[in-house]
Write a structure and sequence with these properties.
The complex is a heterodimer.
Chain A lengths: L2 H25 L3 H31 L7
Helix pairs in contact in A: 1-2
Chain B lengths: L2 H23 L2 H4 L3 H19 L5 H24 L1 H8 L3 E5 L2 E2 L1 H6 L4 H10 L8 E6 L5 E5 L8 H4 L10 E5 L2 E2 L1 H6 L4 H11 L6 E6 L5 E5 L11 H22 L3 H26 L1
Chain lengths: ~70, ~290
């Protein structure tokens, strides 16, 4: 497995974390919990953005592994 | 009219009347019965019993008596609500027995409490050493309330973990296979969601004896068919695990890459994930 695909896997994981956090933020009854989940969601968005950049960078470096 | 019929009619009427009166007296009377309220209760019962059996007593007289006996406590509790002074007079005050860890002998004497009785009350509350008590007071209803010294108090969650998420009550959304719409709405959910969740764990609604939703929207069910194993909700555990894995991945990437800029970015993201994990862990483990 190339580093490119590993990073992509992490990106997918992060997206799933993001979605779960979002659904928890919606489903929680307690406001404090809602806010915490929401903030966490925003943080993961930042991380996702960075990771996306990194993925395109890697794809430029190793065009043969350009993702499906 | 035959005598038995009269007794029957009287009894039924009085039963209904008494039922209404007890509803008016409220729940408080059940839990915190003072001596006065106890006597009032017995007397009302006695009057009602005599009234239903004894044909010589006229119904109007009996009803007057019952009304006075039952309205008086209601009036007293109503005035008690309004006036603090009246309340203190009627319901009595609490007496402090132990303050700053020292027994107040004067107050013991005032309440005619011997030290043996005080020790007995303390033992009933699992306190065997007087030295462990910071503060104790005899409540108006005769109970002893105890505040233990700080280092003798039982450990609470707040002592161990900081920033504990507040606990919200779970809602019961299915009872005896029937969906309860009101609690479902209180939890901010609907029937479609419930059906979806039940499908996820592969259970038919007819088979659900009881289902509850916790404050994080997780569904737990009890089935009629106890042979079926129901999976526990995994969402939060999986989320925590996924976050830990991603954090570890970032650290790995940071080690593997030779690209200086990427290395720093990975390290920063690993830190971000780590702080996220510490922030969410109390919520996700709850």
């Amino acid at each position: 497995m190339t580093i490119g695909s590993q990073v992509k896997q992490s990106l997918a994981n992060l997206k799933s974390i993001h979605a779960t956090l979002q659904s928890l933020a919606l489903k929680s009854v307690d406001e404090q919990a809602q806010r915490t989940f929401h903030e966490a969601m925003l943080t993961t968005e930042e991380v996702i953005d960075h990771l996306k950049q990194r993925v395109s960078q890697l794809e430029r470096e190793e065009p043969q592994y350009k993702g499906k | 009219m035959p005598a038995w019929l009269e007794v029957a009619i009287r009894s039924v009427c009085i039963l209904i009347g008494l039922f209404i009166i007890t509803k008016f007296l409220g729940k408080k009377q059940l839990s915190k019965l003072s001596f006065f309220e106890y006597i009032v209760g017995i007397t009302i019962g006695d009057i009602a019993g005599t009234m239903s059996m004894d044909g010589n007593i006229r119904l109007a007289e009996g009803i007057t008596s019952i009304l006075i006996w039952s309205l008086f406590p209601i009036a007293i509790s109503f005035i008690s609500l309004k006036s603090k002074k009246f309340r203190d007079f009627v319901e009595g005050n609490s007496t402090v027995f132990i303050k700053n860890g020292k027994v107040l002998e004067e107050n013991l004497k005032k309440e005619k409490y011997t030290i043996d009785e005080l020790l007995e009350q303390l033992r009933k509350k699992d306190v065997f050493r007087l030295a462990d008590v910071e503060f104790a007071t005899l409540e108006a209803n005769g109970d002893l309330s105890i505040l233990l010294k700080r280092d003798k108090q039982p450990l609470t969650v707040g002592d161990v973990v900081g920033n504990v998420p507040s606990e919200k009550e779970p809602q019961t959304v299915v009872m005896d296979g029937a969906i309860l719409d009101e609690p479902l709405a209180t939890a901010g959910l609907n029937r479609g969601w419930l059906k979806n969740e039940l499908d996820k764990i592969g259970v038919a609604i007819e088979n659900v004896f009881l289902a509850q939703v916790d404050a994080y929207g997780q569904l737990t069910v009890d089935l009629y068919d106890d042979k079926i194993q129901v999976p526990e909700p995994q969402e939060k555990k999986l989320l925590l695990a996924a976050m830990k894995k991603t954090q570890a991945d970032f650290e790995l990437f940071a080690l593997q890459t030779n690209h200086e800029e990427a290395k720093q970015a990975y390290e920063m993201n690993a830190k971000k994930m780590e702080s996220l994990i510490t922030k969410l862990e109390p919520l996700l483990k709850a």
